[in-house]
């Protein structure tokens, strides 16, 4: 991992959160290299012991917030509320759920009850 070109952007957070390092690394590379987001930044979320990733999808002006986690983790409502709070209470966040086989799925979470687009 340390030899990967993107490691330098993550070097300040990966050693701090070793249990989440793999999912942070995988999510960061997917967002930056595969999804080609712009203005990508790594934000520490100390209250939930990990880093999040913010950025913009191509051809958009909206900043999105992604919280990486593992499929093997158990998340609580309180954990999610802390993530929302530390990210500045955005209307929505995305969970980037990684698995051991390198699969990555994004789930959009909103605060409260939100009517889906039809």
Summarize the structure in short:
Pfam families: Sen15. Belongs to the SEN15 family. With 118 residues, this protein is of the alpha+beta class.
Description:
- Strands 1-2-3-4-5 form a five-stranded mixed β-sheet, with helices on both faces.
- It is 24% helix and 31% strand.
- It has 118 residues and is α+β, with helices and mostly antiparallel strands.
- It has a single domain, classed as Trna Endonuclease, Chain: A, domain 1 (3-Layer(aba) Sandwich), CATH 3.40.1350.
- Which CATH first-tier class would you pick? Alpha Beta
- Give the strand tally: 5
**CATH topology, anyone?**
Trna Endonuclease, Chain: A, domain 1
Give me the Rg, rounded. Answer: 14 Å
Residue windows where pLDDT falls under 50 for at least 5 positions? none
Shape estimate: globular
Q: Provide the spatial order of strands within the biggest beta sheet.
A: 1-2-3-4-5
Number of domains: 1
Give the terminus-to-terminus CA distance. 42 Å
Alpha plus pi helix count: 3
The class by helix and strand makeup works out as alpha+beta
Q: In oligomeric terms, what are we looking at?
A: single chain
CATH architecture: 3-Layer(aba) Sandwich
Helix content: 10-25%
Helix-strand pattern: HHEEEHEE
Strand content: 25-35%
Domain tRNA-splicing endonuclease subunit Sen15: 26-117
InterPro entries: tRNA-endonuc_su_Sen15, tRNA_endonuc-like_dom_sf, tRNA_intron_Endo_cat-like_sf
Organism: Roridomyces roridus
Family: Belongs to the SEN15 family.
